[in-house]
Design goal:
The chain is an alpha/beta fold. The chain has a domain of about 35 residues. The chain is about 40% helix and about 10% strand. The protein has 16 helices and ten strands. Strands 3-2-1-7-8-9-10 form a seven-stranded parallel beta sheet, sandwiched between helices. The radius of gyration is 21 Å and the shape is globular. The chain starts with 14 loop residues before the first helix and ends with a helix.
Length: about 400
């Protein structure tokens, strides 16, 4: 089998492709995202209108929020962002499983008594809780089994307040599958009728670490995002994978073969909006990611985040593109041509030309489109952003 490259002119947005995909999303394009966090969930929900074949490679390195409690209790990768993306892509029509979706998106009260929550969990495991009894067999038994495994392994004193039931099911499944994420992600995808593919970018239980410009070492994603802790006082100089939260102990992990195969089937590769380092660059750290991207001859699009990102400080758009390329070149080598890694930067029309000159000088096409509406400001409107992506496939 041979591969050829075809060049075509594209209208932006392309009404023909938009209409074709929206009329039959089952045959929609395989748009692949490197992302993490919740920034892409709105786009993911809207994308179901155009394609049921999108691919989402998500970081499992978070160390904050409810995921951290599970990571500490079970020595496992972070599952919160995976669960969030699975739910964003779930089939919410009558053809899906809305009762399973309701259970997975249910959270325990933060103000409830601990004993009451344990009783509620026990009722779910026994199948007597209303959210569980409404689920048909055999899905009900599968879910009860995962929750039962979680309950049996749960350490004394584990706090269920504010916990996502979806996270607890994923944690139980992880333990039930010999501490492997892939089988339980696959199972949950079937349970909620995920219209796309969601995978962890790495199988390993690792954390993020950063060397700052002033020489400080910071270990833990939760210390980098400024969501749970004060913002960094110095710019990030280098992001790396670390074996634990105990101190600097760099780790190496491989890009799984199954993920490489997904990249090789993509019709478009997107570096998605979100926290620049902990959601995007973190996805590029496993060995083999850059090579897989360079080997696939399809459009490669960077969509920068809008608004304030505490992780990037005073970095402008050109700085972000340079940094993104720098991390990709670490894997493919410095001689890899830019066009094999990034072809397009998609921005809102309001961005000044001065901010895009250096990017264009690299041979990267900057597409200025109407991507922010009065309703979505100051963030992207998912509809025109989806239309832009499917137009490029």
């Amino acid at each position: 089998m041979s591969e050829i490259t075809i060049t075509r002119a594209v209208r932006m947005p392309d009404p023909f492709r938009i209409e074709r995909f929206s009329s039959n999303p089952k045959l929609g394009p395989r748009v692949l995202f490197f992302s993490g966090g919740s920034a892409l969930n709105g786009l993911s929900q809207r994308l179901k209108k155009y394609t049921h074949n999108s691919i989402h490679l998500v970081t499992p390195f978070d160390s904050g929020g409810s995921s951290q409690g599970l990571r500490v209790a079970f020595n496992m990768p972070a599952i919160g962002d995976l669960r969030s993306r699975l739910m964003a892509l779930a089939d919410e029509t009558v053809l899906g499983h809305p009762e399973v979706f309701r259970l997975f998106t249910h959270r325990y009260s933060k103000s409830a008594r601990k004993d009451d929550l344990k009783g509620e969990l026990d009722a779910m495991i026994a199948g007597t809780h209303p959210l569980v009894t409404s689920i048909e067999q055999p899905m009900r038994t599968l879910i009860q089994n995962q929750l039962g495994m979680f309950r049996a392994a749960c350490p004394q004193g584990f706090d269920l307040r504010g916990a996502s039931i979806g996270n607890l099911i994923l944690a139980g499944g992880y333990l039930n599958q010999n501490q492997q994420l892939e089988p339980i992600i696959f199972l949950v995808s079937k349970l909620v009728g995920v219209l796309g593919t969601v995978r962890a970018v790495s199988d390993d239980n690792l954390h993020l670490g950063a060397e700052l410009a002033d020489g400080q070492m910071v270990v833990g994603q939760h210390l980098l995002t400024a969501k749970e802790h004060p913002p960094l006082t110095s710019p990030i100089k280098d992001l790396f994978l670390n074996k634990s939260l105990a101190g600097r102990d760099p780790a190496v992990t491989a890009f799984p073969t199954r993920n490489r195969k997904l990249v090789q089937t993509a019709d478009l590769i997107c570096y998605a909006p979100g926290s620049f380092y902990t959601s995007l660059i973190a996805n590029l750290l496993p060995e083999g990611v850059g090579r897989a991207i360079a080997e696939r001859t399809v459009p490669k699009v960077y969509i920068p985040s809008l608004g304030l990102d505490p992780e990037t400080g005073k970095m402008n758009l050109s700085d972000k593109v340079h940094t993104l390329l720098n991390y990709l070149h670490r894997d493919v080598g410095p001689d890899c041509p830019t066009h094999k890694l990034i072809n397009f930067v998609v921005v809102d029309r309001t961005l000044s030309d001065d901010e895009t000159l250096e990017i264009s000088a690299r041979g990267i096409t900057v597409l200025k489109l109407d991507l922010v509406s009065a309703q979505s400001a100051p963030y992207y409107d998912p509809e025109p952003l989806c239309e832009a992506l499917v137009s490029l496939t």
